[in-house]
Amino acid sequence: QLAGRWFLIAVASRCDYLAEHGHQLEAAAVTVTILDGQSLAMSTFKKLNGICWEIRQRYLPAKAYGRFLLNGRGSRLDLVVGDTDHSSYAILYLQKGQSISVKLYGRTSQVSDTVMDKFEQHVRAMGLSEDVTYYFPRYGFCDSADEFHILD
């Protein structure tokens, strides 16, 4: 049910990159495809220095429902579907080591105030705050990629 196109609305994270470059965020859209009935293939389309990039990731199912795993180059990224209605929003948790991020995706580039309140509750529940929450532009999305990168 997560399959289809999603727009990245916001992310809460103590990531150093976001702290330094949060003022330069570009719109990002994700296309989710379900492979073999259980794995998630995620193609993220975003701009970097005026070039549209596609970043491809494949998350394998973990033992619990709604949990997925990406084994990267020497690192592991856990993805958990925290809350979703499948038709308008999805709140995802990503954990790499001790670092946790909370991401809000919408089927459109804008979500309701109720959904935004839910996201903020999830953010606070993870011990994160408004000062590490970043909001993405609602315009300037890439529909295709000039370049691509695969993270397997």
What is the overall silhouette? globular
| Strand portion | over 45%
Count of discrete structural domains: 1
Sheet bearing the most strands, described? 8 strands, antiparallel, barrel
Strand order of the largest sheet: 1-2-3-4-5-6-7-8
CATH architecture: Beta Barrel
Number of helices: 2
The percentage helix is 10-25%
Provide the structure class: mainly beta
* Topology, number of strands: 10
CATH topology: Lipocalin
Main location: secreted
InterPro entries: A1-microglobln, C8G, Calycin, Lipocln_cytosolic_FA-bd_dom
GO molecular function, one term: complement binding
GO cellular component, one term: extracellular exosome
Offer a quick outline of the entry:
12% of the residues lie in helices and 50% in strands.
Q: Could you explain the architecture of this structure?
A:
By secondary structure, this protein is mainly beta. The protein has a single domain (about 5-135), classed as Beta Barrel (Lipocalin), CATH 2.40.128. It has helices at about 15-20, 115-125; strands at about 5-10, 30-35, 40-50, 50-60, 65-70, 75-85, 90-95, 100-105, 135, 145-150. It has an eight-stranded antiparallel beta barrel. A hairpin with a 2-residue loop joins strand 7 (about 90-95) and strand 8. The protein is globular. The two termini are about 20 Å apart. The model has no long low-confidence stretch (mean pLDDT about 90). GO terms for molecular function: complement binding. This is CO8G protein. Keywords: Disulfide bond, Secreted, Signal.
